Amino acid sequence: MSTKVSDSTGYVPNPQMSAFGYVMAAVLAVLLLPALPIIVLAWILWRVFFAEEPVESSYKDWRTETQNQ
C-alpha cells in the first residue's frame, strides 16, 4: 500500500466531461419539456389558492408606527 500523495496538477479543462454535462442537460430539458405546462398550471393554482402573500409594511406606515410608540 502506497502512502505517497501526488502534487496537484491544478485546474485543467476537461472537454469530455464538459460535453457529457451538456448532453445530460439537453436530455433533461427534452424530457422535462412535455411536463412544463403541468408544472406551470400547478404553480399558478398554488399561487392562487394556497400561497399566502406576506404583508409588507411601507415606509410611511413604519414612520407613523414608530412615532406613535
Automatic annotation (TrEMBL):
Transmembrane intervals: 20-46
Keyword set includes Membrane: yes
InterPro entries in UniProt: DUF7535
Keywords (A to Z) from UniProt: Membrane, Transmembrane, Transmembrane helix
Highest taxon of source: Archaea
UniProt cross-references to Pfam families, sorted A to Z: DUF7535
Protein's name in the database: Uncharacterized protein
